[in-house]
Amino acid sequence: MIDPQLKGKVAIITGANHGIGAAAAKSLADQGAKVFVTYYLPECSYSRDELDEAQKAGVGGDRLYCAMQQQSGETVVEHINSAGPVGIF
């Protein structure tokens, strides 16, 4: 749904490095809003290799969820900026 009333508005999205937060940030930007994204990277008991393996496999569970939480918000901001509106984190 494109909402013309969002053009030029500012949205603040928390948890925008993965999942629903990332999708919401991208959607609002695609509709013309300027988006400020923020996220938290919690401590994780898995090694980087274990997280990378979980992401490549794409199989659900705790390891994949932790891998998604460890993503940077940079890819979301890059998507927003490529769409035209301003995205910052």
Produce the secondary structure layout.
Blueprint: E1 10-14, H1 19-30, E2 34-38, H2 48-57, H3 62-69, H4 74-83, E3 87-88
Parallel strand pairs: 1-2, 2-3
Describe this structure in words.
By secondary structure, the protein is α/β, with parallel strands linked by helices. It has one domain: NAD(P)-binding Rossmann-like Domain (Rossmann fold, 3-Layer(aba) Sandwich), CATH 3.40.50. Helix 1 packs parallel to helix 4 and helix 2 packs across helix 3. The radius of gyration is 14 Å and the shape is elongated. The two termini are 25 Å apart. The model has no long low-confidence stretch (mean pLDDT 83).
Overall number of structural domains: 1
Q: Quick one: CATH class?
A: Alpha Beta
Question: Level of helix content?
Answer: 40-55%
- In percent terms, what proportion of residues is strand? 5-15%
Strand order of the largest sheet: 1-2-3
Structural class: alpha/beta
Distance between the termini: 25 Å
Outline, from the CA principal axes? Answer: elongated
Count of helical stretches? 4
Computed CA radius of gyration, to the nearest angstrom: 14 Å
Report the order of strands and helices: EHEHHHE
The pLDDT mean sits at 83
Q: What oligomeric assembly is this protein in?
A: single chain
What is CATH's topology name? Rossmann fold
CATH superfamily: NAD(P)-binding Rossmann-like Domain
Q: What can be said about the biggest beta sheet?
A: 3 strands, parallel
> Which blocks of ≥5 consecutive residues have pLDDT under 50?
none
Give the second-level CATH assignment, the architecture.
Answer: 3-Layer(aba) Sandwich
Q: Based on DSSP secondary structure assignment, what is the total number of beta strands?
A: 3
